[in-house]
Amino acid sequence: MHTHGKKFRSAATKVDRAVHYQARQALELVKGTAFAKFDETVDIAVRLGVDPKHSDQLVRGTVVLPAGTGKTFRVLVIADGDKAKEAEAAGADFVGTEYLAKIKEGWTDFDVMIATPDKMGQLGPLGRVLGPRGLMPNPKAGTVTFDVGRAVRESKGGKIEFRVDKAGTVHAAIGKVSFTVEALEKNFSAFMDQIVRQRPSAAKGVYVKTVAVSSTMGPGVRVDTNPYR
User: Fold this and answer.
1) Which of 18, 30, 130, 205 is the most buried (most CB within 10 A)?
2) Above pLDDT 70, what percent of the chain?
3) How far apart are CA 159 and CA 152, in angstroms?
4) H helical segments located in the chain
5) What is the pTM of this model?
6) Does a structural domain hold residue 131?
């Protein structure tokens, strides 16, 4: 049986498991109960009233976190000509179709791949490398586009992708413990607003069942779901 360490148990005493806190209070608790020596990530877990087995109840989307993620994303853009220049001007870390050969050899030292639609045919054979790592560009995620400048800026500036898992829960990182409560609250609100907007028409009953926030090592803090029902 797994047992938590002394620091976790001490942090957990500050959280009342029977209480569903307001978002700001919950985020203050997350900051106050973080105990690791590194800058922990602030995570959110949202359990939804959907059945992911049905395609019409999948919840998937993207959101730009207004305060950023606290992480530096390395962006690769597969494009040429003017679109390659546009990507470079927007701050992409790697640009060009020559990177396709490197990927085929196993290179994946990037966090986000963006491709223009005319290049997607060349990416098909790389699915075995990109797919398992979640790196394959996808139109729904905004990473297959001719507007590469905007896609690069969003990816570098705090855009995240989310998708409901088999258990009906969406997990995401919404910042770092070092963020101010105000910054975390902005990111939390932006994320939850997008979750609500993504409600499938086939979903019946209570949509947002539970919401919890936590730091990487800290205890979970339950959030009041009434504003999102």
Assistant:
1) 30
2) 99
3) 10
4) 6-12, 23-33, 81-90, 99-104, 120-123, 127-130, 148-157, 181-197
5) 0.85
6) yes
